[in-house]
Amino acid sequence: MFEGFCRTFFSCYCPLAVEGRHHLPGGPFLLCSNHTSHIDSAALMTASGRRFRTFALLGASDYFFHAGSVRWLVSPFMNVIPIERRPRPKSLAACLAMCRRFLRQTGGILILYPEGTRSPDGEMQALKTGAGLFAVELGVPLVPAFIEGAHRVLPKGSSVPQPGRLTVRFGEALTPAPPSCTEVSLRNRRRSAVERLAQSIQLLSPAYRVQDLVARAQEKG
Fold first, then answer.
1. Intervals of the chain under pLDDT 70
2. Which fold has domain 2-220?
3. What is d(CA 76, CA 79) in angstroms, rounded to the nearest whole number?
4. Whole-model pTM above 0.90?
């Protein structure tokens, strides 16, 4: 029911355009996007063209499992894997174990928002280092994505979506780095994963696309 509602919503009320769907791998992967709105996850799942049951969402435990309205209205319709905003080693290990189990058993897709929370102004925020940790520890391809228009439709602090057009762009998958045993190498791999991801998401943003078009026009001129 929820999947059907979302497909209708993004077909009629907020028309959704999709670019780069061919970049999505066939097996399990992490899907990492900018985050400006509560409709982001539904937009990503709809844009993928895949069944919603193949997705899980990494979400803050205090928000998705303790906040009353969200707990009853959102969590039941999405496969949310809880994570603490400031995870302790034990809770982080438990979260990683749940993510591995989901990816292994379903061959599905884990949505992760590397900014950590929704942007208040629609601009992309700095990525948290935790995104690199999940990319390295889970060892699956990481697909960058950019959602354009969601902040206008349902910005942070709003509860009623306004009609508007959205675009979801998927980028080329980033392959996980080979395993390493040393702590220094592990930290470097996590940092490198975050840097590559940040650059890849920014390349999908409308601001970069405009700059690229201007640069190409200047080269031709």
1. 63-76, 177-184, 209-221
2. Glycerol-3-phosphate (1)-acyltransferase (3.40.1130)
3. 7
4. no
